[in-house]
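HUMAN: Would you supply a protein with fold tokens?

ASSISTANT:
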Amino acid sequence: MTPLPALMVAPNGARLTHADHPALPVTLPHIVETARACLKAGADGLHLHLRDSTGGHVLDAGLYDEALAELALAVPDMRVQITTESVGLYEAAFQRRLALATRARLVSVALREILSDGDEAAARRMHAAAAERDIALQYILYAPHEVERLAAHLGRDQLAETQLLFVLGSHGGVDGSPALLLPFLARLEQLNVAPDWMACAFGPPETDCLLAAHDAGGKLRVGFENNRTMQNGRLAPDNAARVAEIRRLSTDQHHPAP
């Protein structure tokens, strides 16, 4: 199974526009340009969201394969993960099919979305099919209790071999904090499992949250999808600046302020 990148950039997300930041990459050419800059700045992974012709969130296997092909040419050393996020537009069955329908080897699925229709058997079939096709599913967990829910869904042994994303804060304007990471880690310790995990965090505390995740042995997801400010509180000029800052601080044992 393809491991999670150590430092993944999430440059746009599904909801933001140029009103949120003029450097937000919306078109595929801008996403490719951003990927090049972020790879140079130290990211080894990209979390991919695509937009339709009007700038709206879209899940489409053909568009994903087109984007993956262009990114493979532009940034062959960068691992690319596609999203299956619904944003209220897509049903769980469609998301489960999409997870298996592209050339992507890394795919993120939100546990609460993939099980939203209650069809746990179908979700387990998706998981098994992904494993057979060497597709690494990363389960997005928005709350610590979802660790137990995923363990009950997949079984403890499979959980130990599964990729996770712990989300600190929320799209609703709730900023993350390092303290929010601790209950997720406590659940893993209680279950005595050590999966491949990553953290992301909303709002200006993103930097402190990611440094805490790094110190705890996790991998990091940074970028405009979750936060658009630097550690000093100033607006980041672009995604590459955020990548460079997190790369620099996470390799400095003492995490000094800039």
Summary: The radius of gyration is 17 Å. The longest helix spans residues 28-41. Residues 228 and 236 are 6 Å apart (CA to CA). Residues 7-250 form a domain with the TIM Barrel fold (CATH 3.20.20.70).
